[in-house]
Design brief:
alpha/beta; Rossmann fold; 2 domains; seven-stranded parallel beta sheet; six-stranded parallel beta sheet; globular; binds 7,8-dihydrobiopterin
Length: 363
């Protein structure tokens, strides 16, 4: 395929590198690297203060957008004054003819609404499940008018949208060179994620306590009251909060775990921590819910458990020795490397190219 000129338009909820954009910051960076490795050229446009090594970055001023998951299902579409989201897309409109495809990373109404008004095709990476009626409608309208332009991270995520639409399942990927395979684990279980109710930490605490294995907890304490409640409810549990660690330190500690427990109460769009664990050779025990249920092959790279069943977690923990850590690591390399992500991304984008360009690219 010929080299494409791609414009990546980042999330308006925070500067790249601030952590405010959550998983989508990592996804944007990994996609840029993966596609650059395949010979494409990427320019990124993002809110001022953004940082991204090795890519030309255009910074746009303006007021940040409220996070979509903090609004209700019937929330009206809002734009603050001097909205960075509007300013981002005013810039994109002016430069669109310099690019073959524009890739949108924002989970926001505006870029979807603007799609028919642009000459250059816009590819949308939808990074979360259904959150509001207005966004659902905007996504479905684009999917109906521009088939193949919507990508998601899992089938489960796509199924949270009541109105079905055609989509490309990009899954996700990580830079495996940052993760070290650990063949011989220590005696503890791990849990990684934002400490907040939708992540179901209390189930992991209960299950670990029943097996006598200590639980090491990694991640930002997003909801301090929730964390305090867990400590009050399970004072005897052997659990230790290890803090919110950068990738290098996280993978160093996570890799030594017997297994990772994933106890989501909501539909995780994907579950990056599952592939981070596999990359280190760590089996994953997860509720059969959302993205993790499509990543883990039960009995092979971990165990899938009846959702919300603490007893199910306990039974799976007893079966950890049946899982090969080498196979966990190899599965990550086969499916979740940047090379694998790049191949899927190129397949997605090739289907979006205008016909004549696609013919050219077939040469
Ligand atoms: N909210 N409004 C809005 N726009 C986004 O792009 C957005 C968000 N909330 C969370 C988020 N992006 C990312 O953290 C997730 O997509 C991973």
């Amino acid at each position: 395929m010929r080299s494409l000129k791609l414009l990546f338009v980042s999330t308006p909820v925070g500067a790249l590198g601030s952590g405010l954009g959550g998983g989508v910051e990592l996804t944007l960076r990994n996609l840029a690297i993966a596609l650059q490795q395949r010979g494409h050229s990427i320019t990124v446009v993002a809110p001022e203060g953004s940082q991204l090594d090795n890519f030309s970055l255009v910074e746009i001023v303006g007021s940040l957008q409220t996070t979509a998951q903090s609004q209700g299902r019937d929330a009206p579409i809002t734009l603050p004054s001097n909205s960075v989201l509007s300013n981002l897309w005013s810039y994109v409109r002016q430069v669109q003819n310099c690019y073959d495809i524009i890739v949108n990373f924002a989970y926001d109404w505006l870029p979807f609404y603007l799609t028919p008004f642009f000459e250059t095709p816009i590819a949308h990476l939808v990074s979360m499940g259904s959150l509001s009626e207005a966004m659902d409608q905007a996504i479905v309208d684009v999917a109906d008018s521009f088939p193949n332009t919507i990508a998601v991270h899992s089938h489960a995520q796509a199924q949270t949208f009541s109105m079905g639409f055609t989509y490309f399942n990009l899954q996700n990927g990580i830079d495996l060179s940052q993760y070290e395979f650990c063949p011989n684990p220590d005696e503890f279980l791990a849990w990684v994620g934002r400490i907040a109710p939708e992540k179901g930490l209390e189930d992991a605490v209960q299950a670990a306590a029943k097996t006598g294995l200590p639980l090491k907890i990694f991640g930002v304490i997003q909801d301090p009251a929730y964390w305090a409640q867990i400590q009050a409810d399970y004072p005897q549990a052997a659990m230790e909060w290890m803090g919110f660690l950068p990738t290098q330190a996280l993978q160093q500690a996570l890799g030594r775990a017997q297994a990772l427990l994933m106890t989501p109460k909501w539909v995780e769009a994907f579950g990056n921590v599952a592939i981070e664990a596999l990359a280190c050779g760590v089996p994953v025990i997860a509720y059969r819910r959302g993205g993790p249920a499509e990543i883990i092959q039960s009995g092979y790279t971990g165990w899938l458990v009846e959702p919300d069943s603490v007893e199910g977690l306990v039974q799976a923990i007893a079966k950890i020795p049946q899982i090969s850590r080498t196979i966990c690591h190899r599965e990550a390399e086969m499916t979740y490397s940047l090379a694998a992500l790049g191949e899927r991304a190129e397949t997605w984008l090739a289907r979006i190219l205008p016909h004549e360009l696609a013919e050219e690219s077939a040469e």
